[in-house]
Design brief:
The protein is an alpha/beta fold. The chain contains six helices and six strands, in the order H-E-H-H-E-E-H-H-E-E-E-H.
């Protein structure tokens, strides 16, 4: 079973919701951490070399975005938002980190892993996250419920703009 089949099964189960695939958000905390580490390293280099002019110039350079991609973003009735991370292998799941989940857990009501049935055990899933298992027939079973974030932050403007561009391209392609 591949990721597309898993997302198709979820879309079929949640026909009254909008499932948007492959959505990306910039992680503000990760960017701040990266910038702080970079600033420290640049300052240490300037102290070592005495080249404060280059240091000042480098501080004005833009930071690279720290993007976090999610396989599916499910918008339900009542303003519910669920981040869905598809895992089709144990090796893929083992590369997961809290840093990858953090921003999505902040801006959605729930964060769930969607996997082929039997791939993961509920006790392997991090606290607060859920597990949805998809069997070969496409049936979705909630094996572990995600803890609800009752007050998620607003969806960042950057995500809304990306979704609007995607809709605009789709409308143009359809004509």
């Amino acid at each position: 079973m591949n990721a597309a089949a898993i997302l198709d099964a979820i879309a079929s189960k949640h026909r009254d919701c909008a499932l948007i695939r492959e959505v990306q958000v910039n992680d503000r905390e990760a960017l701040a951490e990266w910038r702080a580490d970079w600033d420290r390293a640049e300052e240490e280099e300037a102290k070592r070399t005495g080249d404060w002019e280059t240091y000042q110039a480098r501080l004005r350079q833009p930071c690279p975005p720290t993007a976090r991609r999610i396989d599916g973003l499910l918008f339900g009735g009542g303003q519910s938002r669920t981040a869905i991370e598809v895992k089709i292998s144990r090796a893929d799941y083992q590369r997961e980190t809290d840093a990858k989940r953090r921003m999505w857990r902040t801006i959605t009501n729930r964060f769930v892993y969607a996997t082929p049935a039997g791939l993961l055990q509920p006790d392997e899933i991090p606290d607060g996250c859920g597990l949805w298992e998809i069997d070969p027939d496409g049936r979705v079973t909630i094996t572990k419920r995600a803890k609800a974030n009752r007050n998620p932050e607003p969806i960042p403007h950057q995500v809304l703009v990306a979704l609007a561009y995607r809709l605009t391209r789709k409308a143009t392609d359809d004509h």
